[in-house]
Amino acid sequence: MTDNLNRSQAPSVSLSNDINYIAPERHLTPAGVPVYLMRNETSEAVKLELIFDAGSIYDEKPVAGLTTGMLLAGTEDKTMAEINDMIDDHGGYFNASVSADYAYLNIFGLNESMDQLIPIIEEALYHANFPESELIQLKAERKQNLMVSLEKVSTLAQRSFQEHLFSGTPYGRINQPDDFDGVTRADIRNFFETYFKKGLRKINWVGNPSAGQLDRILQCFERWSNEVTPPLKVNYNPSIERIDVKKADAVQTGIRIGKILFDRSHPDYHKMTVVNTILGEYFGSRLMSNIREDKGYTYGIGSYLGENQSNGYFVIATEVGNEFLADTLVQINAEIERMRTELVPAEELSLVKNYLSGQFLRSADGPFAMMDLFSMAEIRGLDYSFYQHALRTIEGITSEEIMETAVTHLNSEEMLIVTAG
What we know:
The protein is an alpha+beta fold. The protein is built from 14 helices and 11 strands.
């Protein structure tokens, strides 16, 4: 058999950008809260995600995080252990997290157990009484964790960066260890009554319920409403000076560089995604190639596009040895300027296009991933056309457009620089 392959050359890569986006069913609870159901007909696995307007921006103290952490800590007639045992008996799993804008409650289980599992969790949530003993313990744990984290230069850099980039807005508030001491059980209960019971924004459901099961579970959430008014978009007045946070005896320095940018509704968002990927978003990026692979200054460096309910932002983040700080800043600036002054070579652009296309294909693989895509768009008032536009932009973007986007949005003189070490 003759081998006609030229094994000295890598095979060409061809990725289809034809993704079959599946729209979820839209239902309403009796209180009018939208429920988005993505059918999962190939598996018995189920996930319900409850999203509340109950993030940390709604309170000046660390109340949102403590409330979220105590949602299943007990009711008047059931302890936390008893509630967890009941969930375990039905093969369920529950976790909760909080961001600046939202609280997320995730319930996992099987289709056959949802009729028993959901009422147990809903009852425990609605009648949560936040025992004083559990609150004291959780406050002590969170305070200790923060104090430990404050010994890390990465934490110090990130906190100072957040404080100065979002100065004068709720997003710029930074918790201090002593802030936990001032939180009372009354604060927790008030936050829960205001932002959880009246702040259920939506429910994302991946599963395959029967018509009867669907109706029964919708009824389970009849007493949760959506009455919280999200804050209006805030005006940012970020600092663009250099901030140096001193930490005695630190052998490394944390670095954060960035600026207020825009969220995914902006017309340049997809172009900026390509710019950011080339600069620092993936392992083969320019920042990684220069500062890690070539210079050996750090184990990892990257850039990313973030966003909150009010706006978006751009960040470069790393930690380096103190002796490498000055040149690292020089090299970061050089890579930013190269994006602004040099056309991206065709081979590099092709690699990044294939990488991003592959990421999109993977992000749409299966009903759970498809629900995540839908939810990320829906919560910004967008739909699946956002991703279709992204794929078209990635496929068609030119080196000239990349440089033009970098010139417009990546000016080093407009960026906040924070170092901690």
